[in-house]
Structure prediction request, 256 residues.
Amino acid sequence: MPKYLIKHLSTSSVSLYTQCAKKWKLRYIDGVSSVTTTPLIFGTAFHKTTGGYIQSGHQGNIINRWSSVWKETVAKNADNIFWGNRNYMTELTVGKRMLNSASIRNLLNETNVLIDNKGRCQIETYFSFSIPGVDVPFIGYIDIITDDRVLGDFKTSKNKWDIDTAFTYFQPYFYLAGAKTLNLDVDLTRFNYYIFVKDGNAQKITLEGITESRIDWYLDQVRSVWRGISAESFPICTDMKWCSPKYCEYWSACGR
Prediction:
């Protein structure tokens, strides 16, 4: 395997390999192009809108901000979006309805970003660190560090989350490891998820009592993924829900 092609690993890369290593290979080694799904493009635009609004100190008209960001995001990806039964206007309207809801507006307005001692706003904070046994750096962006020095991640969702759902994601542990390598003055035992549900509900779910040993366990998963990549082990996903035309953008290229 031409490992020189792999410049770094990330949360999305590691998560994809653990879901389906064959899909990982098609994307990162073979360079097979794929469509951008409507939920992904919507989430990207909504994330940028909410992060920008918090970063501005909750200034300006957030509906206008959403309309502008949505237009720009769609234009940037116009040739590669799979709309399904949705379209530009339906998703624009969903975003407006969400941002007009009291639940989402209240959560946004009570969320304040940390400004560090160098005057830097901790939105989309970049990190890069080395993991022993992995030949490339692990990189990422922390969505937000709030003024109580707790890291957080924004999610849009069709349905409400529960704590068990929150524990299925890798981000908290990789983000905390990144914050530690940056020597950021933050709480390394907690992590917040900000869930913006498409029905207009908002949730703040806090993971507490995170330990260094738990973070190290997730870093071991990165090492395991890297060993698989290095050994050119790319098995196909066995979960038939994900291994289907509906959920896999590489279905036609897979060659099962």
About this structure: The two ends are 20 Å apart (CA to CA). Residues 35-100 form one domain. The chain has two domains: 1-30+114-237, 35-100. The beta strands are 36-37, 81-82, 123-129, 138-145, 151-157, 191-197, 202-207.
